[in-house]
Design goal:
The complex is a heterodimer of chains A (470) and B (190). Chain A is an alpha+beta fold and 470 residues long. Chain A is 50% helix and 21% strand. The longest helix of chain A is centred in the last third of the chain and has 37 residues. Chain B contains 5 helices and 5 strands; from the N terminus they run H-H-H-E-H-E-H-E-E-E. In chain B, helix 2 runs parallel beside helix 4. The chains are: A alpha+beta (470), B alpha/beta (190).
Chain lengths: 470, 190
């Protein structure tokens, strides 16, 4: 370039443009996030829908699920399911766009379409199924139940070791609840038994979440209702349950889901690598973190190797989660003099951390490859023109960022309780208690017909201050 | 080199395209190793052949002096998989119906629908066309069944043995008139 003024202007423009594009996903949607966290759902929905183009872009999955979740919270279940269905179809039809994938190696992973985390694809079906149950459309809820089963099978087939997130006990429990709502007690029993085994196995090991007492009662009850006498006796003795829960004749039932807090937010962290090459291998080493990655130099062109060998230390960015700790420690439901503990079904936050942990090696490999490609382009550009090399270096520096996208309107944890109701009006109180022992009451009234099951979800968006940095 | 690169790009892009192929419904395609349509078909085929050739069933029909009416009762699933037993039960019903060896009477939710419709006819249909109450065909036999599975898993290998047992029970005497059993054993190596 022969015009220094123009060069400086160009660099400034690139810098300003790229700084904006490299904000985390949370920051770049700050207004929406703040509206949502304040509980101003209508405003959050308006803010979200101001950008309908996102419904066809690289973040379309997040656009669909955020719409679906907020509309569900607003009680617009049909509209909510329209968006959840689009999110589900996106997951089904997702194909890797190799051109976009290639572009991520020259820029950052945000150039690729966000495909959604495993647990996000399961949870969207949870919301969809519950919406249908609230609409009293059991057949449609059963469709979601079958889809959940397929998703769980796909998840389970991906890994063959029990230290991976390959079973979701909460989803099995949900399937049991849906089957039971259809009076298919046999399938409900199978689902509850699978849930119990997953809680006692993987969920306890990975997330320290054991089987809720209510699930044990659900298991015993459905064993009896489906005529599985042997299993009924076996579990009754095992759990020490003397009287199984059966809805009193003429009464109804409440199945209450409590969504406590907010799921973690993805942000990025930087890791520095020293690079060296010997014996036909390129090594990326961070001694402090004990990281050492070797790539065969035959994967690189000789020019790339030459540029790599001139490197000292390089910085690359990786995604990480920042937890938003819950405000409420627990809750109880009361109906008259009777109290029912609201029990933990899934710690969504821990599941999210686990999903990312399992992928971290892959994320790291991709980031290293990205670094190598960027440095090679920088070296090539510098060879032809000093300014071109500088511009490339600046672009590389500014575009380096991690993929910080995730479904951030999900709850931190999901709890549930079953409450037997009498026919007619029932006043149920949820007492949520914080970590200082202070409690807050939320009162709900249900008008119940004999044999009716009410499905209710209650969401507390309150969260403690997360660690800064997202 | 340029045309070669364009060609390579085209090949890569084409390889990303979704492909859908119609296949013969009778073709066995095993993907995950779990229960699938081929297993339902195998159970149905085996059970139909077993029932239609059963001497005990023929003997019962002869003693009854007419084609027995069968109602589908309950098929319990004790396996750890969500298996839709309707898939093979409907095939068995169809084969029985087409063979002319037995009559099938409506059960479960469909029977309730018919009864609701009959109530509605009394209010809304021309009297001469109203279906009468008390004219349903009582079943002679009820079809019951049970599915169990035993699994053995070691590292990346899995053996599952599915046992499906069906039986026809006389409505009056509670005696079992026919038994059928199909076993499917699978060895899955990941």
């Amino acid at each position: 370039m022969k015009h220094p003024g123009l060069q400086r202007l160009l660099l400034s423009c690139i810098g300003v443009a790229l700084v904006g594009s490299c904000a985390t996903y949370y920051r770049s949607n700050l207004v929406f996030n703040q509206d949502f966290e304040r509980g101003d759902l209508n405003k959050a929905l308006r803010t979200l829908q101001e950008k309908p183009s996102e419904g066809a872009g690289k973040k379309q999955f997040l656009y669909f699920v955020n719409n679906g979740l907020i509309l569900s919270l607003l009680g617009k279940y049909e509209e909510s399911n329209y968006y959840f269905e689009r999110a589900y179809n996106f997951g089904e039809d997702y194909r890797i766009n190799y051109l976009n994938e290639a572009a991520t190696y020259f820029s950052n992973p945000n150039f690729a379409v966000y495909r959604g985390e495993d647990h996000e694809h399961l949870l969207l079906l949870y919301f969809k199924a519950i919406n249908y149950l609230k609409l009293d459309r059991t057949e449609d809820a059963l469709v979601e139940c079958r889809r959940l089963n397929i998703r769980l099978q796909q998840l389970s087939d991906r890994y063959d070791t029990s230290d991976k997130y390959r079973k979701d006990a909460f989803v099995h429990t949900l399937m049991g609840i849906i089957y039971e709502s259809d009076m298919d007690y046999n399938n409900a029993f199978i689902a509850y038994r699978n849930a119990y085994e997953a809680y006692e196995g993987e969920f306890m090991q990975l997330f320290q979440v054991g089987a809720p007492e209510q699930l044990k009662r659900d298991l015993v009850r459905t064993a009896k209702l489906s005529g599985l006498d042997q299993e009924y006796e076996q579990y009754k003795v095992k759990f020490g349950i003397l009287v199984e829960d059966v809805v009193a004749p003429g009464g109804g039932e409440l199945i209450f889901f409590w969504h406590n807090g907010l799921t973690p937010i993805k942000t990025e962290w930087a890791v520095e690598f020293a690079i060296s090459q010997r014996d036909g291998m390129v090594y990326f080493v961070n001694e402090r973190l004990g990281l050492n990655y070797a790539f065969s130099s035959s994967n690189y062109k000789s020019s790339d190797i030459k540029s790599l060998s001139k490197m000292d230390i390089y910085r690359l960015t990786l995604p990480k989660y920042v937890e938003r700790p819950v405000f409420y420690a627990g809750a109880t439901l009361s109906l008259g003099e009777d109290h029912y503990p609201v029990q933990l079904l899934e710690d969504v936050s821990k599941v999210a951390f686990k999903c990312l942990d399992e992928r971290m090696n892959l994320e790291l490999s991709k980031a290293l490859l990205r670094l190598a490609v960027k440095k090679a382009t920088e070296y090539q550009a510098r060879k032809s023109d000093k300014w071109a090399g500088l511009v490339t270096q600046m672009i590389n520096l500014m575009t380096e960022s991690a993929d910080t996208r995730n479904w951030q309107t999900l709850p931190h944890s999901i709890y549930y309780a079953r409450v037997p109701l009498k026919a007619g009006p029932n006043t149920v109180t949820l007492k949520a208690t914080d970590f200082q022992g202070r409690s807050q009451d939320f009162v709900f009234t249900y008008e119940v017909k004999p044999g009716e099951t009410h499905f209710h979800t209650f969401t507390s968006l309150d969260a403690l201050q997360a660690h800064p940095g997202f | 080199m340029k045309p070669f690169r364009i060609l390579l790009l085209a090949v890569v892009l084409m390889s990303c395209a979704r492909s859908v192929t119609r296949v013969d419904p009778g073709q066995t395609i095993d993907l995950s190793g779990r229960w699938n349509d081929a297993d339902s078909r195998q159970v149905a085929t085996g059970m139909i052949a077993n029932l239609l050739n059963s001497e005990k069933f023929k003997e019962y029909t002869t003693q009854l002096g007419k084609k027995p009416s069968i109602i589908v009762g309950l098929v319990r699933n004790r396996t750890s998989e969500h298996i839709d037993t309707e898939n093979y039960i409907k095939r068995i019903e169809l084969a029985l119906f087409n063979s002319g060896t037995a009559e099938v009477v409506e059960s479960g939710a469909f029977r309730e629908k018919l009864r609701v419709e009959r109530v509605n006819q009394r209010d809304f249909a021309k009297p001469s066309t109203v279906a009468q109450w008390g004219m349903e065909t009582g079943a002679n036999l009820m079809l019951f069944g049970e599915m169990t599975s035993e699994s053995d898993v070691y590292e990346k290998q899995r053996v599952v043995n599915y046992v499906t047992t069906l039986y026809l029970t006389d409505m009056e005497s509670n005696k079992r008139v026919w038994y059928g059993q199909e076993e499917i054993k699978k060895y899955v190596k990941n």
